[in-house]
TrEMBL record, chain A:
Keyword Iron found: no
Record-listed E.C. numbers: 3.1.-.-
The entry's keywords: Antiviral defense, DNA-binding, Endonuclease, Hydrolase, Magnesium, Manganese, Metal-binding, Nuclease
Annotated NCBIfam families: cas1
The name this protein goes by in its record: CRISPR-associated endonuclease Cas1
Family: Belongs to the CRISPR-associated endonuclease Cas1 family.
Species per Swiss-Prot/TrEMBL record: Spirosoma montaniterrae
Region: Disordered, residue numbers: 274-300
Oligomeric and partner information: Homodimer, forms a heterotetramer with a Cas2 homodimer.
EC supergroup of this enzyme: hydrolase
A GO biological-process term: maintenance of CRISPR repeat elements
From TrEMBL, chain B:
Enzyme class: hydrolase
Top-level taxon of origin: Bacteria
Pfam families xrefs: CRISPR_Cas2
The keyword Metal-binding is assigned to this record: yes
Cofactor(s) needed by this chain: Mg(2+)
UniProt subunit comment: Homodimer, forms a heterotetramer with a Cas1 homodimer.
UniProt EC number: 3.1.-.-
Family: Belongs to the CRISPR-associated endoribonuclease Cas2 protein family.
Record's protein name: CRISPR-associated endoribonuclease Cas2
Primary role: CRISPR (clustered regularly interspaced short palindromic repeat), is an adaptive immune system that provides protection against mobile genetic elements (viruses, transposable elements and conjugative plasmids). CRISPR clusters contain sequences complementary to antecedent mobile elements and target invading nucleic acids. CRISPR clusters are transcribed and processed into CRISPR RNA (crRNA). Functions as a ssRNA-specific endoribonuclease. Involved in the integration of spacer DNA into the CRISPR cassette.
Entry keywords, A to Z: Antiviral defense, Endonuclease, Hydrolase, Magnesium, Metal-binding, Nuclease
PANTHER family reported in the protein's UniProt record: CRISPR-ASSOCIATED ENDORIBONUCLEASE CAS2 (PTHR34405), CRISPR-ASSOCIATED ENDORIBONUCLEASE CAS2 3 (PTHR34405:SF3)
Length: 358, 96
């Protein structure tokens, strides 16, 4: 079970070799709740909370992941024991592959899987939205064309075609989100992606869901013995989790689906988000909104987070799908793919994997 | 599997230790000397060994009952009963 510590002033420490969460109730009395280290899998801490070193030690002994979250759900750091998940050979190979043609093949596989999943989701939207089928068919045709462009791109290294790839991926993303917005109820419609801050509730939910997915994928990669910082397509900047951003692509669709379902079922209302002003990057990212426009931001509040987190966990861990001939929950599918990727890097299995299809 | 642990332990110190061992193993206290939760086979065996060491075989009694998921579904709960979702690990996230 995940412990989300978000209320200001909450203290996590150890009592009788168990995690104990202590906070002041509304009436000023101290509330405390104790959870066995056997049951806790993740501890997620927001700002304004505290943690004892013994709690960190207990967590490391029991492989409990301690993650520090930004307000938008982005994991900014984690405490994990300093051992590699697997052999160093995998990391060496990961570096080698990132520089050659093989790396490009992987990047293409991930991007194509992402586009496939996006198209699959739009097709599933068509089933109950016959009135929009002409619009949806048009978008599907354009996504297909982009898939073909990506699959025919060739080069000696990722760097040679990186800009083209990003362009194609970006176009696909714009088409896809345009479509999602189009089929939503009028109150929820949004104008493209925005982050730091999000301009609307849909983007605020989506950013938080991606944040949770980043955290999940990062841990998955570490468990498989891969280096989250050695990316194939994404920049090798300081402190950029490049491999996470590469590897996450096929699974973004799952986060989209969770958020979309909440909105299309009208489960989200004004009480789930707060208005915020400005952001760490001083508003929207370049190219995501018209310059000079200053839209107030939107962020998930203490009521919105449980709504999303519970829906996300339910979708990822309680709802098995048929996957490579087995019934697996989605979290396990990601882990399986990560292990397979690592094994392929060191030549343990043959051929390219079939990645997740929605 | 779903595990019930019920005990009568005479010695105060041993009794409170037994309660702690049950909680550390991941069981929830549903009554004063009655614990319930989901454990793996290994966790159950570990707990059994720990409790064996604590008790006095002449005076005390400890029961460790496994229960199937479908049997738990048929359980009747009245009044201030335990949270069925918590003890079956269906609750994935808690917020503080």
């Amino acid at each position: 079970m995940q412990l989300h510590i978000t209320t200001y002033g909450t203290y996590l420490h150890v009592k009788d070799s168990m995690f104990d969460v202590r906070r002041k109730g509304d009436d000023g009395r101290v509330l405390s709740a104790t959870y066995s280290a056997e049951k806790v899998t993740h501890i997620l801490l927001a700002t304004g909370t505290s943690l004892s070193t013994d709690a960190v030690k207990l967590a490391m002994r029991h492989n409990v992941d301690i993650v520090f979250l930004e307000r938008d759900g982005d994991p900014m750091g984690r405490v994990w024991h300093a051992k590699l998940g697997s052999t160093t050979k995998i990391r060496k190979r990961q570096l080698e592959v990132s520089l050659g043609a093989e790396g490009l093949r992987w990047v293409r596989t991930w991007l194509l899987a992402k586009l496939d999943n996006q198209a699959g989701f739009i097709r599933s939207l068509k089933k109950h939205r016959l009135q929009h089928s002409a619009y949806l068919d048009d978008k599907l045709a354009r996504l297909d064309a982009l898939s073909v462009s990506i699959s025919t791109l060739d080069g000696a290294r990722v760097a040679d075609v990186a800009d083209t790839l990003r362009g194609l991926e970006g176009t696909a993303g714009r088409l896809y989100f345009e479509t999602l917005s189009y089929v939503l109820p009028a109150d929820y419609q949004f104008n493209g992606r925005s982050s730091r801050p999000a301009h609307d509730a849909f983007n605020a939910f989506l950013n938080y869901a991606y944040g949770m997915l980043y955290g999940k994928v990062e841990k998955t990669l570490m468990l498989a013995g891969l280096d989250p910082y050695v990316g194939f397509l994404h920049r090798d900047d300081y402190n950029q989790l490049s491999m996470v951003y590469d590897f996450i692509e096929p699974y973004r669709g799952w986060a989209d689906e969770v958020v979309f379902r909440l909105f299309s079922a009208k489960k989200v209302n004004k009480s789930h988000v707060d208005a915020v002003s400005g952001g760490r990057n001083g508003g929207a990212k370049a190219g995501e909104s018209t310059p000079g426009e200053s839209t107030p931001g939107v962020s998930l509040n203490a009521e919105g987070k449980p709504l999303l987190v519970n829906a996300f966990n339910e979708f990822m861990d309680n709802d098995p799908i048929r996957y490579r001939g087995r019934n697996l929950v989605r979290s396990h599918c990601i882990q399986l793919d990560a292990h397979q990727f690592a094994n392929e890097l060191i030549g343990k299995t043959g051929g390219m994997p079939e990645l997740t299809m929605l | 599997m779903t595990i019930w642990v019920l005990y009568d332990i005479v010695n105060d110190k041993a009794r409170s230790k037994a309660a702690k061992r049950c909680q550390q193993a991941g069981l929830y206290r549903v009554q004063f000397s009655c614990f319930l939760g989901t454990l793996t086979q290994n966790q159950k065996d570990t707990l059994q060994l720990q409790l064996e060491e604590l008790i006095n075989e002449e005076t005390d009694k400890v029961y460790i009952f496994p229960m199937s998921r479908s049997e738990l579904q048929q359980t009747v709960l009245l009044g201030q009963a335990f949270d069925r979702k918590l003890v079956t690990d269906e609750i994935r996230a808690l917020f503080f």
